[in-house]
Specification:
transcription regulation, alpha/beta, elongated, transcription, 235 residues
Length: 235
């Protein structure tokens, strides 16, 4: 919880003199209207535009100086995946958060590899979208719990030592830190963790340092012992 506090604090400080400019792209006008109403209640957010199809999105987000694009996968003319491919080819004009009904792992992995900054299912949007926007504006990647669980399970499904039972965990650690420490204990390198969880190597290292500090661990062996003690992995 403390980590989220500082993350949100950084977002506020980052935007003291400049609002986060948001563009919405979805093929349902009702959803766009609802999102506009919600996001415009946040003092440091400004919804600067919206699109019902994807063919002109690149030019639109450049022209209105968008900070973050909230993008649906299912879009007419040019769908969300095609939009992200265009962004990757031309150079991302803004940060991108996928907001979709789809939670298929292959789709998630494809857009993550292309360089999007976050992925939320529409089912969790109401409770997570504000946090996601602040996180991405602050330079973090953000995935809702459903997406993170799918990514993590995929990353570890072929590792026999992984304990499939829900562990009793020190409340100091966030769910992302639990994922990181588990993979460290399973001898994943920083680069491998980065690739498996679709986060940058710098983000992995930041999490590792935070974990070490929270647990007062002196080295990696201490992290492995913690993982074993708390049943994150099997001996």
């Amino acid at each position: 919880m403390l980590a989220y506090f500082f993350l949100n604090l950084n977002a506020v400080l980052y935007n003291m003199n400049e609002k986060i400019r948001i563009h919405l792209a979805d093929d349902h006008q009702v959803l766009i209207d609802g999102m506009k109403t919600l996001l415009n209640t946040v003092s440091n957010f400004e919804v600067v535009g919206f699109s019902l199809e994807g063919s002109t999105l690149y030019d639109e987000v450049k022209s209105n100086n968008t900070s973050i694009l909230i993008l649906d996968i299912s879009m007419p003319v040019k769908d969300g995946i095609e939009v992200v491919k265009e962004f990757a080819k031309k150079g991302f004009p803004c940060k991108v958060i996928i907001l979709s009904s789809y939670d298929d792992l292959k789709i998630i992995q494809e857009v993550m590899k292309l360089g999007v900054n976050g992925y939320l299912t529409k089912q969790c949007a109401g409770e997570n979208i504000v946090e996601a926007i602040n996180a991405v504006a602050s330079g973090e990647d953000y995935f809702c719990n459903v997406v993170r669980e799918k990514i993590f399970n995929s990353a570890t499904k072929n590792i026999p030592k992984l304990n499939k039972y829900k562990p009793t965990i020190n409340l100091l650690l966030t769910s992302r830190e639990i994922e990181i420490i588990t993979l460290i204990a399973l001898e994943y390198s920083g680069k491998e963790i980065s690739e498996q969880l679709f986060i940058s190597a710098n983000t992995v290292e930041t999490h590792r340092k935070n974990i070490m500090k929270k647990l007062k661990a002196k080295n990696t062996i201490s992290l492995v012992k913690f993982a074993l003690k708390n049943k994150l992995i099997k001996a």
